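Q: Hi! First time doing this. I have a protein sequence and I read that you can turn it into a structure. Is that right? Here it is:
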Amino acid sequence: MIVAGCDIGSTTAKAVILDDSTIIATILLPVEGSPKDAALLLLSSVQEKTGIQPSQIEAWCGTGYGQKNIPYASIVESEIVCHAKGIQFIDSDVRTIIDIGGQDAKVCRIDAYGNVQRYVYNDKCASGTGRFLEITADVLEVPITELAILDAKGVKEVTLSNQCVVFAETEVISLLNSGEDMGNIVKGLHRALASRVASLALSIGVEEKIAFTGGVAHNAGMVGALERVLKTKLVVHEYCQMMGALGAALIAQERIKNRVAS
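A: Yes, that's right. Below is the predicted 3D structure, encoded as structure tokens:
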């Protein structure tokens, strides 16, 4: 049984193809243009990468920011439910999920079966999201992928007093002009974002193990900052950015199985 999950986020589009319990392909593309454009490009990329024809995929489940704009998805599900399903498949001992995406941050607690118990999210302010990192990288004139490298070179966490992205951007420029080391600024940036997300997590209670998902989880400096604030190690899987798409594929698989059983 071949099924697929599609996660159209604000900055990236992801797909996971499952054949029974085996992940046979993962695809990650930047979102350029509309969510529908990204979804259609993702579909053609699946065919190019795997050789699987659309007719061979028994069900698609869509999730993410652009889930309503995936014309071939017969099922749609919330990101929170999909991340819970995905991480439960990867590591059934995880009880809390922290997901930081390009435009929002989400935290949820799950049970041993991957069912969501409590959740909270921030989609109103960029200071708790990956956008905060993107804006700062632009100010520093470095690729966002280099923030972890700069963090490793820093020797102290510069305190950023402003949580608002607009004012924080001005503060970073001021720190640069005063001669502050870029590594120290990035370390402080990661700490500020980690503190904001940790407050979100603590509002619903944190239960270990804790998994960190989303594209920001690839940033080792951000992982370290969150671990220091939460005082615990985080689970960061190689599929951290694909977790929503993986969960969506698993949901598609469940629907097909339930249909057959009934």
